[in-house]
Structure formats: C-alpha cells, structure tokens
Amino acid sequence: MTPRRPKGKSGSHHHAMSSPEAMIDLHGVVKRFKNAAGEFTVLKGVDLTIKRGEFVSIVGKSGSGKSTLLNMITGIDHPTDGKVVIGGTDIYTGVSESQRSKWRGRNLGIVFQFFQLLPMLTLLENAMLPMDYADMYDFDERPKHAMDMLKLVGLEKFANKLPVLVSTGQQQLAAIARALACDPPLLAADEPTGNLDTKSANIIIDLFEELARRGKTVLMVTHDPSLTSRTTRNITIADGLIVGDSANGKRK
Amino acid sequence: MRKFLRGIFKIIYSLAIKMKAKSSTQNLIELRDVVKTYSTAAGDFTALKRVNLQIGAGEFVGILGKSGAGKSTLLNMITGVDHLSEGEVVIHSNGSPISVHKKNEDEIALWRGQTMGVVFQSFQLLPMLTLVENITLPMDLCGNFNPKQSRQRALDLLRLVEIEEHADKLPAFISGGQQQRVAIARALANDPPILIADEPTGSLDSLTADHIFEVFERLVADQGKTIVMVTHDESLSTRFSRAMRITDGELASLPERSGAQTKGDNEADLNPKRKLSWWRRK
Question: What are phi and psi of A41, to 5 degrees?
Fold first, then answer.
C-alpha cells in the first residue's frame, strides 16, 4: 500500500493524533496485574507508532512485557491506562465488547506459537473460520477465498487434510492462512517460530517478508535474536519499557 | 401417596430396563479387526493390531494405556481423523450404520460434527474468541441452529458445565480446568450422542481433574451420552462403566473388579440410573 520509505534512526515521533499512515499507535499504555502477592506493573507507559507496511520484531526476555504488549495491540487484554489505536480506531473505546471479535477478525490476523488450529477441521475449514465470526464474504464464496489463502502459503495440496496429518511447519502456515482469511491489514504473531525447526522457521519468516512487501504490517514477538536481522525494525523491551528501537537498513 | 409413587417408580424402572434391553441389541460403535500401520524411515510400525471393540449406547468406556500404546491412534480411528490400514469402524447413530472410513472427507466432517464431540488434553479453544463464541462456532459450521438460537444454546451449555458467568471472557483469562469445561461444552454444541475424550484430565491438577471427570459422569448419567475416554491415569479405571487396556496396539478388557457385574449387566445397570436421574429432575 504505502511505498517503502527509508527508515529513520529512532522509531518515530509520537503525535497526539494518529496519522493516517500509522497502523498502530500506542499512547502511554500501562498494564498492571493484581495477584495475591500484590500489584505488578508489566507495562510502564509505552508509546509506540508503527506505520503500514513495516515488518517489526519485538524482542525481550521472558517476563519483559513483550507478550503483554502484543495482547494490548490485539485487544486480547485491556490496558490499565493509555490508548491503543489500530488503523485509526481506539480499540478499547471505539469498539464494543460484543463487536470486538468481529472487529478483530476483519482488522487483524493473529498467529500463535502453538498454531491453535481446530483438530477436527480440515486446513481449508480452519482457514474459513474467521470469515464466519467476522461475517465476511458470502457463505458460498468462503471456500474459494480460503483456498486462495492456502495457495498463498503453498498448502493448496493439503487443503482437505486434518492438521494432525501435516507437519508442524505446515500447521503454522495454515494458521497464517487463517490469520489472512479476511484480508486484514495487520498480522500479529506471538513467537510464531518458537515451536518449529530452523528450516520451517525460515519459511515462515520468508512468508512474513513477502506479506510486508505486499503492504501488510507484520508485528512479531520473538526471543530469537537471529530473526531480528530479517525485519525492517527491531524494538527491544525490558522491564515494561521500550529500551531499544532501531531500523534495519537492508531491505530490498 | 407413597405407594402410588412407588408404583410409578416401578413402572418407569421396568420400562427403562426394557428400553435398554432393546437398545443394547445394537452397538453404537463397532471396531472390526482394525489395523493401523505407519511407515517410517526405520520400517513399518503397527500401532493397532486387529482391534475389535463394541460399545453400546450409554456406556462410559475408559481405555487405559501407557504413552505410545496406541490409545490416541485408536481414538483417531473412531473419529476418522486418521486413516486405517485394515478393518472397519462402524457407527450406528440415528438408525443407519455409517462406515467411518468409507466416507469422503467432505461428508465425514459434517457427519462427525453432528455425531461426535471431541475433547482434547490441551483444550484447543480459539484464543481470539470469547468462550461463548468458541461454542457457537461448531453450531455455525453444522448449520443446525440460527445465530440467536446458537448463542442461547451456548449459554445453556456453559451453565451445564457451571461456567456461564465467564461467557464473554477470552480463554486466556480463565484457568485450565475452566478451559476444559468450555471445551466440553463446545463438544456438546451440536448435541452429538458420542463424546470422545483424549486424556482430558492430563494437563490438570488432581482436584481439577476430578471435577472434570464428574462432568463426564453427569453427561452419561443425566444425558445418556456415550463416552470413550483415553487416559493413562490408572486411578480412574474403577470409575468407568467399562475399562479396557491397550498394550502395544492390542486391546484387552481389564479384569473384573470385585463386586462388579459382567459387562452386559453393567450396561443394564447404567441405563435405569440415567432414566431415574432424568425422572428425578423433572
């Protein structure tokens, strides 16, 4: 969509209003958890802007807050304070609770470490699921759209197989096809290669790169430093704050 | 008044036994000489060696065995998730026998959705959907209920597994035991006669596991579901209406426990209990 642009050194300036180019805009996001031991602040006021078409990695140690940050962006969890604006919509005040799954289905695809395919459904049926809860496409058109997504990830030959009969790498590719089902502009992935061998992991990253090239915004949480050389921008999070934000110059 | 009630009680009891006798003439699930061989780089490996098994309606069958014994493979043959090498699996749901492995993939998915609910060790809920949405999903896929009906039914099922107050939460915000309750509710979405459970308590602590097992027990007693559960937990063996053991791909009945009836009696015993409990609730 947006033409590639050379990346500046620091992340970006944080405007009070989200610019039309911004896919993700976080303003002062705080997340506190309460448990028996007391209160624990996982995110301590995070400001972050990610533009359309960026391929961003978020790295940090276990417990640094990186997955919590992703959960704020996907609307899976609520911030204690601050604003989360995705594609111009404040997802906590602008989308009602009952509409959130539909909104999420249309606006972002989520990819998980353990794929989370439904085991009793074929890969094609799994890829059709978001169309159901996002209420996208005519019922009869759904198989064709799902098949297009499976082709995109190279799984068309396996469309009618159940997840248990394909490899873990292929399961993750199917999960990506599902995430893309409603053609969302944003793809959020939580340790997508954490359960895969190196070869399969590379196939996944190649695919993410291609998707970003086609204009999708791809956000990936990982603890694997070897993957960060493949993204256009790396964000490092420690103790609930962004401590590093750098652009990778190399991008064809 | 008491005599009158007792009279009614007797009539219902005998009716129940007759109904059971009639229904038990036909098996609900039948495995005939089922063989499953996997080809690996190291050669062929036979995971199931001519397994024969008949399960009647209303039975709660436990299949015990160690990891690698063939437990999950056996379930995969019943659900048709994996292909068999030899033999046949026949399910007699709503009157007509269906040979699971002779149907094509499209037919089988719809049929399975309506005939069997499956519960997994790792719950397998979709993380981006609320609990109630996770349960309406299979209803949407099978098309038996309209959207309004399916939400109401999902809420009813959440009430059945005692977790309705969390209906609009995402799976990440409830405990593992609660997630498994939701997974059971989802398995019941299209009201299938059969529930298949693959180590459903395997990733839960023992107290939570016990609560989940009670949910299954109630489904057999109150709703007349037929359940096939695979587990490595030996302590559960006496709580099934029938327990089998699988070792190196071979299936055998467990020795009768003291005071237990023969298999046939056991089935007959189970069904009146279900009818009575249904009667008590009315």
Answer: -95, 110
